[in-house]
């Protein structure tokens, strides 16, 4: 049954002929295990809200050019239909770029292999890739619009474009493409609320709804939005598309926390002065796998942690926090007619002292868990098709002196670990890369291994370009004053862990695999305590739980109940520093390290 689309009439919203107050919360289907979608959406509805908002992640749906996936965890259509079943409207932000503290802002890394491509611009090569993706994406979204009986009532053209460019031809190309593919619900842009970003990133001059992103000072921000509307002679409803109720955290930095009383005052102001709000985030979830983003800095980029808890009303697991109940009380105070409900909680389990069953070094298993390419000079990760994770570079170097020799890795990202004859020599990170490494070569001919980790591409700012975000060794490796030739690249494939040969030697202080097996009588949510490990990733029954790092602040990884099995289970930890423990624990609460702000 068709329903009326959302109507934008001057400074008001109307839905099905009635004035409409937008009360929305952000839940990213790709950050929340599919088995937990219903609980998260129910808890949003129980708050008294009427809408859920989500981005779509291009890099997940098209991991390789022309190869699409909208199944299982990525079944966007199922998520939207579930929201409708629970009585929620849906806002979809399908823009090619999403920021979201997500790897490369959601752009697929294979774009970096396209010669001369300019991202987020009216570039024919880039737009052709977007259209290929959109033709598949909108086969799902168009039938789920309100005009077709679905719950989708708004869609976004681009995301915070005014903080990146001012190419209005590009914005109009994206808009035209969406309309060509059948989009008929209202379109909008979302930007910072000041004039420069609104001028550069909105299509207000085309009367496209321009919304603002901010976390406080609603009176001032809405006044700036209203002033720019008046400058162009239009009048639109004042909407905060991203009300930042918390913030994300980075490795090596303290967890960012927001004062709850201040948050509540800021939210009250938005609700009283505007026509709608979208809480960013309502449920943050988890950056599973290698999908964490990175904050760009002049020299030392800051990778974001695996948890995307965000200090949101629902925590990483999806349970209500004190913030949830404060907001629920505020909604009841301002809108007593709205129906609310008691929220749902997850079931927790605990399992301590799970013993280590096997361990083995990466070096002895290269042919089991990698794919190999050969080249004269080192190739970037993207060139060999290893878009995320780890790439091991191997060559052999001849000894020219009995004294120490200087080795330099030229222009590599993000973190390199150098081994000579499988002995660790040096670890370098970002601004250290390129500095001389003094090594004493033990033999006439020596095996040189360099493990490079992509710690996440930037998701925002001036470094979000095809020229800056290639990973791996981007130029070469020098010994003395010359570049070394004849390289083998081994791309680590964590889907091949079943092929590990644990009879191969374990070498101390080398990247290695640690296997733990155990039985469960029942499943539940928990956290994997990695306090005694150095750096790496952990996999539960083949599911990549994400990165861990002893520098903190996060010291445990979320293990969703749906990743476990009743009966036998397996955890494999790939650790790169040679630090491990003979037992591991599954605990009920997250573990965070207290860090000082000056770190």
Automatic annotation (TrEMBL):
<dbReference type="InterPro" id="IPR031330">
    <property type="entry name" value="Gly_Hdrlase_35_cat"/>
</dbReference>
<feature type="domain" description="Beta-galactosidase galactose-binding">
    <location>
        <begin position="511"/>
        <end position="569"/>
    </location>
</feature>
<dbReference type="GO" id="GO:0004565">
    <property type="term" value="F:beta-galactosidase activity"/>
</dbReference>
<dbReference type="InterPro" id="IPR001944">
    <property type="entry name" value="Glycoside_Hdrlase_35"/>
</dbReference>
<protein>
    <recommendedName>
        <fullName>Beta-galactosidase</fullName>
        <ecNumber>3.2.1.23</ecNumber>
    </recommendedName>
</protein>
<dbReference type="InterPro" id="IPR019801">
    <property type="entry name" value="Glyco_hydro_35_CS"/>
</dbReference>
<dbReference type="InterPro" id="IPR048913">
    <property type="entry name" value="BetaGal_gal-bd"/>
</dbReference>
<dbReference type="InterPro" id="IPR017853">
    <property type="entry name" value="GH"/>
</dbReference>
<dbReference type="InterPro" id="IPR008979">
    <property type="entry name" value="Galactose-bd-like_sf"/>
</dbReference>
<dbReference type="InterPro" id="IPR048912">
    <property type="entry name" value="BetaGal1-like_ABD1"/>
</dbReference>
<keyword id="KW-0378">Hydrolase</keyword>
<feature type="domain" description="Glycoside hydrolase 35 catalytic">
    <location>
        <begin position="13"/>
        <end position="333"/>
    </location>
</feature>
<feature type="active site" description="Proton donor">
    <location>
        <position position="160"/>
    </location>
</feature>
<feature type="active site" description="Nucleophile">
    <location>
        <position position="242"/>
    </location>
</feature>
<comment type="similarity">
    <text>Belongs to the glycosyl hydrolase 35 family.</text>
</comment>
<dbReference type="Pfam" id="PF21317">
    <property type="entry name" value="BetaGal_ABD_1"/>
</dbReference>
<dbReference type="Pfam" id="PF21467">
    <property type="entry name" value="BetaGal_gal-bd"/>
</dbReference>
<dbReference type="InterPro" id="IPR026283">
    <property type="entry name" value="B-gal_1-like"/>
</dbReference>
<dbReference type="Pfam" id="PF01301">
    <property type="entry name" value="Glyco_hydro_35"/>
</dbReference>
<keyword id="KW-0326">Glycosidase</keyword>
<dbReference type="GO" id="GO:0005975">
    <property type="term" value="P:carbohydrate metabolic process"/>
</dbReference>
<feature type="domain" description="Beta-galactosidase 1-like first all-beta">
    <location>
        <begin position="378"/>
        <end position="493"/>
    </location>
</feature>
């Amino acid at each position: 049954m068709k329903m009326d689309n959302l109507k934008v009439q001057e400074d008001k919203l109307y839905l099905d002929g009635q004035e409409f107050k937008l009360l929305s919360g952000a839940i990213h289907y790709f950050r929340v295990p599919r088995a937990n979608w219903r609980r998260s959406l129910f808890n949003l509805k129980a708050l008294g809200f009427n809408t859920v908002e989500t981005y779509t992640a291009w890099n997940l749906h098209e991991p390789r050019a022309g190869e699409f996936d909208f199944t299982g965890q990525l079944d966007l259509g199922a998520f939207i239909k579930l929201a409708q079943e629970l009585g929620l409207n849906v806002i979809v932000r399908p823009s090619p770029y999403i920021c979201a503290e997500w790897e490369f802002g959601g752009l697929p890394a294979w774009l970096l292999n396209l010669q001369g491509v300019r991202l987020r611009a009216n570039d024919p090569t880039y737009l052709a890739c977007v259209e290929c993706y959109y033709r598949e994406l909108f086969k799902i979204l168009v039938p789920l619009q309100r005009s077709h009986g679905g719950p989708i009532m708004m869609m976004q053209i681009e995301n915070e474009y005014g903080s990146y460019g001012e190419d209005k031809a590009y914005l109009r190309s994206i808009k035209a493409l969406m309309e060509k593919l059948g989009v008929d619900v209202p379109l909008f842009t979302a930007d910072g609320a000041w004039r420069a970003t609104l001028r550069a990133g909105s299509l207000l001059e085309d009367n496209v709804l321009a919304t603002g992103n901010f976390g406080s000072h609603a009176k001032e921000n809405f006044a700036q939005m209203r002033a720019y509307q008046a400058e162009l002679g239009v009048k639109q409803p004042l909407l905060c598309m991203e009300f930042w109720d918390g913030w994300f955290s980075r490795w090596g930095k303290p967890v960012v926390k927001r004062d709850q009383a201040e948050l509540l005052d800021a939210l009250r102001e938005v609700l009283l002065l505007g026509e709608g709000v979208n809480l960013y985030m309502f449920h943050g979830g988890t950056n599973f796998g290698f999908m964490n983003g990175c904050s760009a800095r002049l020299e030392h980029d800051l990778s974001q942690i695996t948890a995307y808890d965000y200090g949101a009303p629902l925590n990483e697991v999806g349970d209500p926090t004190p913030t949830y109940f404060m907001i629920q009380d505020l909604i009841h105070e301002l809108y007593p007619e709205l129906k609310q409900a008691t929220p749902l909680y997850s079931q927790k389990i605990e399992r301590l002292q799970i013993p280590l069953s096997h361990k083995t070094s990466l070096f002895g298993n290269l042919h089991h868990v990698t794919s190999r390419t050969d080249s004269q000079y080192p190739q970037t990760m993207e060139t060999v098709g290893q878009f995320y994770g780890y790439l091991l570079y191997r060559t052999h170097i001849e000894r020219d002196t009995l004294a120490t020799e200087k080795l330099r890795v030229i222009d590599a990202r993000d973190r390199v670990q150098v081994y000579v004859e499988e002995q660790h020599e040096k670890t370098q990170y970002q601004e250290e890369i390129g500095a001389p490494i003094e090594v004493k070569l033990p033999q006439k001919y020596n095996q040189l291994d360099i493990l490079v980790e992509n710690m996440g591409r930037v998701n925002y700012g001036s470094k979000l370009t095809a020229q800056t975000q290639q990973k791996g060794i981007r130029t070469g490796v020098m010994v003395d004053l010359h570049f070394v030739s004849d390289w083998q690249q081994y791309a680590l494939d964590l889907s091949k862990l079943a092929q590990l040969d644990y009879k191969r030697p374990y070498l101390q202080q080398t990247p290695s695999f640690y296997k733990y097996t155990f039985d469960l009588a029942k499943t539940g949510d928990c956290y994997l305590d990695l306090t005694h490990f150095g750096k790496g990733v952990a996999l539960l029954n083949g599911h990549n739980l994400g990165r861990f790092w002893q520098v903190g602040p996060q010291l445990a990884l979320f293990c969703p109940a749906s990743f476990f099995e009743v009966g036998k289970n397996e955890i494999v930890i790939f650790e790169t520093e040679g630090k491990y423990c003979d037992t591991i624990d599954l605990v009920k609460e997250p573990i965070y390290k207290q860090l000082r702000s000056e770190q």
